[in-house]
Design goal:
Strand content: 5-15%
CATH topology: Rossmann fold
Order of helices and strands: HEHHEEHHHEHEH
Domain SGNH hydrolase-type esterase: 36-260
Structural class: alpha/beta
Shape: globular
Helix content: 25-40%
Organism: Nocardia caishijiensis
Protein name: GDSL-like lipase/acylhydrolase family protein
Radius of gyration: 18 Å
Strand order of the largest sheet: 2-1-3-4-5
Keywords: Signal
Distance between the termini: 51 Å
Signal peptide: 1-26
Oligomer: single chain
Length: 278
Amino acid sequence: MTNPLRAVLAALIVSASALLPAGALAEPASGAAYVALGDSGAATTGAADLDLAAPLRCLRSTANAPKLVARSLGLTLDDRTCSAAEIAHLSQRQAPDIAPQFDALGPATRLVTLHIGANDADMTGYILGHCHLTGCPSESEWGARIDAIAPSYAAALDDIARRAPNAVIVVDGWPTYLTDRGCPAMAGLRDADAAHIQSAFERLNTVVAREAVAHGALYVDTVAASRAFGMCADPSVRWFDPILADRTLLPYHPTPAGQRGVADLIVAAIESNNALAR
């Protein structure tokens, strides 16, 4: 069966490709003070605010959390976040036109934000391929896949510190998607599976938070602050589009409000820890 999320991504890419100016795919290193690394959770707001100057398959937004953080802190930004990125794409090309995200790092980098790991844990595959069709897989199967990202995540943090020795590294986790029940916007998702999905994201947070702290990064917990803004919340305040996506056309991906909420939490954590004054 065709993955619904991949089908939506493909449609967005095809529809926008004709608008992309020639030469817009090149991403030379900017030597920016702030480098943003990560996957679609940091990169995109789907069909909303699409950045046509970025590699199109990244679906990078002009209003994503990194851009909002940069504006709040007054930092120049090299945003390398890209939809579908895995941890390996931090150090390897994701595609011929998408350089390794680490290429942007250097001694001039003062701040690095990192949000990645969901694709390595196959969160989309388990959620759309199982939970919404036949029911979520067993906790042991899914949990083992999530836990398995720890070594590569730890190595990535060490590599960031080596490449950007003067930078503060900030890792943000995954906010609240669901609580203990479904809703009409989730198209019949069983309550037990809604709880299972959220539990999986919180397990992913546990893995990432543990590695972040162990490797000297600042971890930003986004679960509690977003508990009232999940996919079953009122559409005007949702941080994520539900399976019947009506804001971004990308289920389980951040809305503009979600990116703003995460950005505010990141900025607050940096300022409260006086992180950039080091």
